[in-house]
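All the exercises in this workshop are built on plain-text protein records. An example says more than a description, so a record of this kind follows:
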Amino acid sequence: MCEHAAVSLAPVPSAPVLVPVPRTLGLGLVLVVLIVAFESMAVSTVLPRVAADLNGLALYGWASSAFLLSSLFGAVLSGVLGDRRGLAVSTVLALSVFAAGLLVAGLAPSMTGFVLGRLIQGLGAGGLGALPWAVISTRYPEVARARMLAAVSSAWLLPALVGPLIASVIAAQWSWRAVFWGLIPVLVLSAPLCILPLRQRLNRPATAQERDSRRILWPALGLSLAAGAVIEGLRRPDLLAWPLVLAGLAGVAWTARALFPAGLWRLTRGLPAALALRGWAAFAVMGTTTFLPLALHELRGLSLTGAGAVLSLGGVTWTLGSWVQDQLERRYGEASRLLRARGGMVGVVIGVLLTALGVLGPLPLWVVGVGWVLSCLGMGVGYTSNSLLALSSARPGQTGQLSGQLANIEVLMVAVAAGVGGALIARVQPLQTAFTLAFAVTVLGALLTWLAGTRLQQPRK
């Protein structure tokens, strides 16, 4: 439930449809999203077994952070390539890179090799995550876009329901490597459905948003590298640790200026606070997802199947929360968004805290389920409401840019949370203490979502 955030700022232009849209294109898009979503949900479940088999607990956090940070840059790169060479070329590249990453991860002889495979996967997944929005906005008529967006979004539901459980069964009966290998044939079969209908390029001038995607290409790469330096510095026990952290923090501060509005880290009222809320909420809930299965396995003796069931429960609840949010939006309208966003973040704070107490031992194990349901329900209601609140405050012509900012802050903060949690697991002994500190960090992130919620504002009419 964390890595589906890998969509970043990519061209979402407005253009007339010049050729009829084959039905196979829609099917191909949905299949690609299903594959990426399944891989995303599966990795969190099998990662404890990967780390055990490859003796790679020291690089545990990097398995998620490498994917996320590379996906941030991969989405922007795919958008620029699609603008210059066409969507067919960018799609071929994204699919090929993602498949190569699956192969490298599945064949990895060490945890370093596995992290490399995840980094390659992220580059491809970033482009694949941005692909539906670029295709739908350029190849589908206005009346069909809402239906296709709903279909693409719904493609995440099935992997959220069964992905962790299927992955845990495959890992238990065969090998965790089969989780990665098994996706490659499906990817190969679905690729022509996407690529062939996109071979004809649209003749139109580049939009302002596409030009923006070129402008942020190098800042996006810089942000990924700088955040990676922070994560590696926190993980290392040697003399390079603090120089890396300080240099990385300086790099994040510098590159963020080109990607996000001023006042983001100060929680300035309005749009910066909405972006900060999204980032810290992702940090708290999706960041917890990256180490929750390992904590349940190591501290509570839960099997990977049991840990996968907890993640599946969270995915279902998040979807339910999104449905509840939609019903509240229909019934009470835009005026209720502020209250929904703040109320959802209260659920996140309480839910993450209960989850932590249930995993660490002060409360019974069943409290983990209650806490995780509450936190994911809060995300379903509050996360989407906050996004709608932010988008409604955007000036005309800036909606696409803001959508990219919402995605980028999410990816960045989840990657940092995974890196911090992984660094604690690598450096702190015993594991009980490491997980206690990791949960303390994500609970703090949850509290900051509440603080950001107090700085939100309804857009002025």
